[in-house]
Every structure is written in structure tokens, then in C-alpha cells.
Amino acid sequence: SDGSLRYTTCTNGGPLFVYVKDGRILRVTPLEFDATDPSTWVIEARGRKFSPPRRALVAPHALTMKSLVYSDKRILHPMKRVDFDPDGERNPQNRGKSGYVRITWDEALDIVAKEINRQKRVHGPGAITFPMSSHHQWGNVGYYLSSLMRFANLIGFTRVAANPDSWEGWYWGAMHHFGNSMRVGVPAGYGGVEDCLKEAEMIVFWSSDPESTNGAYAGFEGTTRRLWAKELGIEFVHIDPHCNPTAQLFGGRWFPVRPQTDAALAQAIMYVWATEGLYDKDYVATRTTGFDEWKAYLLGETDGVPKTPEWQESETGIPAKDVRALARKWGGRKVYLAVGMTGTGFGGAGRGATGAQWARCMIMMMAMQGWGKPGVNFGNLEIGIPHDLHFYFPGYADGGISGDLAFTGNAVNNYQRMPHILTMNPVKQMVPRQQMPDAIIDGEATGYLWDGMAQEAQFAPFTYPMPGYSPIHMIYRYGGSSLSTVTRSGRWVDAYRHESIEFVVNQSIWMEGEAQFADIILPACTSLERWDIGEWANSGGYAHHGVNVVNHRVVTLQHKCIEPLGESKSDYEIFTAILTRLGLGAVFTEGCSELDWVKRVFDSSDLPDHVAWKKFCRKGYYVVPPEKPELRQPVDMRWFAKGRRKDLPEPAPMPSQYAEQFGMGLQTPSGKLEFVPEIFKRHTADNPDRPAVNRYIPSWEGRNAELAERYPLQMIATHSRYSFHTSMDGKNSAVNQVDDHRALIAGHRFWLLRVNTADAAARGIRHRDLVKIFNDRGAVICAADISPLVTPGVVKSYEASAEFQLVDVEGETVEIGGCLNTLTPDRSQSRGTSSMAPNSCLVQIEKWRNAEAFKM
Ligand code: MGD
Ligand code: MGD
Ligand code: 4MO
Known about the structure:
With 856 residues, the chain is an alpha/beta fold. It contains 24 helices and 34 strands. Strand 2 (14-21) and strand 3 (24-30) form a beta hairpin. The two termini are 43 Å apart. Bound molecules: ligand MGD (2 copies) and molybdenum(IV) ion (4MO). The site of one ligand MGD has 38 residues, from helix 6 and strand 26.
């Protein structure tokens, strides 16, 4: 009606309509289905019928897309640091200090291409690194695991080996009790929505806040389902140091556990079950191993300490009587245990010093309660939709156009359907992500592999530098989130300024984070300014059938809605231009534009059987009809509980990984749920941090650590409700204006720090005062958000402020962007792992003198 054209796109928070007029985006709105889209599914439970709304219930951050495109932080031209001369003085010590001058694309590309060649010639393979983040704008062609991987492979690079950031405690701990290495040690969640609504009597949310974390990409699709559960009278319980937004919305008893003491609480619950006979004895006898040894530990027979509710009280802060009451209630009912964002894994409790201990307990608790029986499973109604999973569309981690069969899901998934030129990285050297600054500054680092192929893969250490390869001398950084998402991130500043780093390129959309530490900046555009294709929430790879979180399977053509702003270009075009200078342009593109690749992905999927390409382009999306009720997937682990052959649509374990018969039993050596994992007995007998019998070992940076004398508060910095990591925060995004995200004080939008009323009063801090939060690693200025919603002794914030802004105030350096990972420890959770532990962090806070100091 206003003469605009309606395009479609997809984001990390869901699919959108994009209205464009005269080459400008007018607005974005959540995608809504029309009468021609297929009907939706119905679940019948306890005499009621439930069906989801016929529109995309997107995340709040998705709706900020327009403000991100037109952000005044957009980088619109290639730039060179003023005191960087590729042929003379490079002044690495001034990175992040000196300003930039605008240069032409030709000049920028020539410098980068020349430097790539010089690095190879002078230092040899390994000198260049392409640090990659864990996330990206949506779309299978432009994703970092697609175009960037292809580009990097064609150049050769030292891989920054990621730690399993989302999965930590599950990968290093829980997995060894039940397998599922293909899912990095978390349960799958098939069929969970119907089973939970029909059978469950209670849901225990344990480090689970789906109203903030949205099953990662599903927006508020799960909220409706949880409202149905409330209508059906299913009881909710929340175990979290924060009465989080999920607890706030739905209510239910809140157990304000102290951070990283969860394993003690879980063991006390299991103690009650074991001593009062409140567990599934038949299941334990026939489906598990090692229970007697575990029970002996619980009862204190092995160490003289019975793990009673009284024993845990001083650790967790939860009164013994409450623990006993919860244990009895739980032990006598059909309960869904909700861990992390989907209820089937993750959770901030897993990202701290005791993360593996907690995740291990979660599996053992379910083993005691008959995991897989009706109404007894993992989940919080965020996952397990009755989708047609036979319809094939690749997820972003399935490799896109990368041609990489080793480090993406390409080999097991999309490659056969879309053959394209294979690419391989000939450099075997790797550097662990959390230790990369140390690797640069100290010249060495050791890491352990994250590899879902097998439970055993994680025990292999790798060291940097690797004989035969060059240490790192050039960083080609894509995006710039490390300062906000990697622990003790202030190390990055020193790493960037280190003399061994001869050249830094940054390819970014916005001037933020690490972009300000580059020698050459290449301006990329947003996904609304280029072509792509992608299915909502279909991550693929380690989250096989990740679409199980959204109510409808929606594949979108991600239209190029507008021309790239300024001189910015798509990442694909930038890679093409650089590789063309190296004689590799055609190898990279195979003669294809981005739209051609989009068509190739379309052709590789099942879409052509259902919709013509032109029709798909015009409409912009396709909704996959739901599965016929008689063909719905079975419930996760039901086969195991019943002693049947595995009947779930997932390609794991691998044929060689079954104990006796293909399809029978779990991936563990015994094929059963193991209370005392055989794998730990075999491989960590000499490592007290990783005992086979899961002891409660207090956090090395918890309340009882020596450091607590100076820094008495525990900080948790978990996933932001309003931003998707750094990608929607900062840059004058609409998100910044949310009062529950940042507070406008003296002209600056300060990051919020949630503080308990008593802790604030003891320090004379009032609501929305500026506070300094600090420890030996750094100091950040935040705005205090005071309430009884966080437990005393705990301060909570969100991770991943996009802004990193160091300022000097009267001789003191403080960060005012909200980068709380400058305070978190870089220590691995346990020896022999490469895991992050940001939720084991001690701090102090004090009222900050005044806001005037920052008047800018
Ligand atoms: P993102 O902000 O998603 O976070 O950590 P990251 O993956 O590092 O980083 C994506 C980067 O890629 C951004 O800089 C973005 O601008 C850039 N980018 C995205 N799309 C494009 C594009 O199209 N072109 C270009 N050129 N750049 C693009 C996430 C990580 O954080 C995760 S997954 C977890 S689970 C951890 N969680 C966690 C925690 O719980 N607490 C604390 N304290 N820290 C944590 N850090 C971890
Ligand atoms: P967290 O926010 O780390 O998220 O999903 P999760 O890992 O589930 O933790 C959830 C809850 O755990 C929080 O309420 C927090 O207070 C609580 N918690 C923290 N420490 C402890 C503890 O020691 N014990 C207990 N019991 N509870 C604790 C993460 C997931 O979220 C991931 S991995 C990604 S990559 C996505 N990131 C993301 C985002 O950045 N923004 C939004 N809006 N959604 C996201 N979804 C995804
Ligand atoms: Mo994650």
C-alpha cells in the first residue's frame, strides 16, 4: 500500500519480511504465513488439542536488523591505519591507538594479496591465521563455515581450534556416561514436545532460561508451548542463581543455588533417592552399570562423607529441608529435566570450573529416574517438534560451499548432493582459541581437541608451534568479537600489539571490537545487501535436525534487498577479489555468483520436488508440511528404555561404535548408561581433575577460594536476552535502547550489572548508579540493576557487549563498553581439557565516582 516491495530474509532470531522502497529499507516484520502455506500440526494431550500460531515468533534482536544496516558504526570504505606502512615502519605497538585513513579497494586488496604472498615466501605455511567465531549472519552460502572456510583453505592457515564453548561440561564430562559424541555429549530431544505435554508432571529448569536463549535461533517459538504446559498444570521448578526471565514469566519454585555448586545439590538429591528408594530399580539394574560404586560414594562409604542435604547446604546456599522436599517430589513423579537453552544440554552451569561435574550429574539423575520412559526425559518444550525430517535442506554447519570435508558436516551431509571443488588446508598446526593470545605473546600453547567423531578424540593434546610450520605472523580477522567472547580478553590487546604480528587485516561490517586493532580494514556488508539461502534454525552439523526447535520448517531465500552501503562488499566478493590477485579467482567461484551458489544449494535440497525456483524466488520462502501423525519420530531414548534397536533418525553412533550389535545400546564401551564411565577409568586415572567417580570438587575460583578474601562476589556473565552475542549489541542498534539491556547515563549507554539488594546496600550503591566491577584482570564500568532477583553474593551480567572501549580516568584504565570477559579466568575447567570457565569468576564492585568523568 505504501508502494514498497516485500523481500524475505532470515536471521539468528528468525525469518523476516523486509519492506523496501526506493532502495531503502522501510521496516522489517516477522514472517507470517498465508492461506497457500500448508496446514500446521496438532498435538493432543490430556483431552486438549494444541496448535502453534501461523507466524514466525522471532527474537527481539531479529527486529533490530534495519537499525544494524543503517548503523553509523558501519565501515563504508577500505581503510589503512595512519602509521602503518607495509614497505616501511609498521608500528604494531600502536594498534588500537592510532587512527585510519580511507584508501581505495585496489590499494587495500593489493596490500593484502602482497602480504599473503610475502608471509608464505618469508615464513612459510602456518604464518597466517584466520581466527573464526562460533556464529555468523544467517545463510548457507555466506556463512563462515562456507565462504570463509573455502577462502582460508585456498590460502592455507594455522587453525584456531575452537573449544566447545556451547557444550563444555557436556563434552568433557557428561558424554562419557552415555555417548552421543556426534552431539558433543548432549541428548537429542526427538519427540519431546508431545511426550512432555502428554505425560510429564513437572519440569525442573536447571540452568535453563529459554525465554532468553530461545533455543538459540528459535525466537519465542517455544514460549507458546510452555504456556500450554502451564495450562495443563505441569509444575515448574527453577534452579539458577538468577530468578531468570523464564522463572519470572512462568513462576514456580526458585532454588537460588550459588554458581558452580550445582554438583553438590544434585548429589544430595541423588542421596535422598538412593537412601529412600526413590529411583527406578529395574532400569538401573538392566540399563546401567556402576550404580553400586556410585551409591557407595553418595552414602560416604568410600570417603567418609555422606552427600546428605545437610552436607550441601553450606556450599549451595539451599536449605537441606528444601532439597529433601524437592528430591522426594521429583523421585515420585514423571519429570522432564530442562538443562540449558533447549532443555537438552548447554546451560551456564556447564561453563564454569565445575561444569563437567554438573553435566555428569544431570545424566546420572536421569539414569536413576528411567530416562526414556513416558514423561521422563530431557527438555523444556523448546525442542522435539513433530516435523517432517525426511525433507532435506542443509544446515549452515553442513559446509555450504566450503568444499571442506574435514571441518564441516559437508562429508556426512551435503557434499553428495552438491559436488563442488574440494578445498583442504595443508597446514596441520593448530592453536587453541582460548590460549591464542598466550601463543602469540609466550610463543607456545597446548590444547585438546574438540571433535565429535568419537569419545576418545578429546584426550589427544596438540601443541603450538608445531614442528615444520611457521609461528603466526599475520592475523586475518573476520568480525571482531573475541574481546567480548573469549575469557580474560584483555590479553588480546597485547597480542595484537606484539612485535611478532607483522600484519593484521580485519574484514568487518561495523567498526567495533577488534576491528580497531587492524592495519587494513575491509568493509563487508550485511546479509540484507547480498544473496543467500537458509532454513530457519537449521544449524546442521553437531546440532543434527536443529530445526526441531521451531514450529514450522521455513526455508527462506535471503533476498539481496538493497545495494551494499557505501563501498562495502559482500564477504564473498572480497574473497573473490583477493584470490583473483593470487590467480585463484575461478577456483574459488567456479564461475558462480552468490546467486548462482544459492541456486545450487536450492537444487541440492528437496525444494525442487515441491516448488519451482522462480516461484520460490518470488514468494521468498517455503513452509515444509508437517509430518503425518503416524510417521512422527519416536521419543528420544524410548528405544533404549524398552531395550529395542535404536529407531531415531540420526547417523550416530557410527557402526564401529556399538558394543555388541549394530543399533543396540549406547556408544559407551558397555553399551549402557555408565555411572562410573569406563572411558575415564581408561584415560584419566592420573588426572585428579577428572575422576571416574564424579566427586564434588569445589570451584577453583569459587566462594571458598583464597581470592574470595579480596573479591567476595561471584560473577556470572551468560547469554544476552536482547542481543545475539556481539552481533546485535552496540553500533547504535535499536537493542541499545532497551532499558533492561543498557542504561543511558550521561550520554553513554552503559551495560547492566544485576546486583542483589543487600549487596548493593552494603556498598551504598543505588539503582542505576554507575559501578566499577573489577578484579586483578581488569575493571569495567556498568550500570547497577538492583533487585532481589539475583541471589546474594552473586552479580549477573550478560556476555558479549559489542563495544570495547578502554578509557583512562585519573591514571586508572577502565573499560566502559561492557566487556565483562576482560574479568573472566582463562584457566581451563580441568587439567587435560581445552574448556572455558567464564562462570567461575570472583569480583568486587564499588560505586563509581561519577559519570562526568566520561563526558565525551
Ligand atoms: P559472535 O558475536 O557471534 O560471538 O562467541 P563468538 O562466536 O565470538 O561473533 C561473530 C562475529 O562474526 C562478530 O564479530 C560478527 O560481527 C562477525 N560476523 C557475523 N556475520 C558476519 C558477516 O557476514 N561478515 C563478517 N565479515 N563478519 C561477520 C560466541 C561464544 O561466546 C559462544 S557460542 C559461547 S557458547 C560462549 N558463551 C559465553 C558465556 O556463556 N559466558 C561468557 N562470559 N563468555 C562466553 N563466550 C562464548
Ligand atoms: P546461559 O545464559 O549461559 O545459556 O544457552 P545456555 O547455556 O542455556 O545459561 C542459562 C542459565 O544458566 C542462566 O539463567 C544463568 O543465570 C544460569 N547459570 C549460570 N551459571 C549457573 C550455575 O553455575 N548454576 C546454575 N544452576 N545456573 C547457572 C546458551 C546458548 O544460547 C548458546 S551456546 C548460544 S551460542 C546462543 N546465544 C544466545 C545469545 O547470545 N543471545 C540470545 N538471545 N540467545 C542465545 N541463545 C543461545
Ligand atoms: Mo554457544
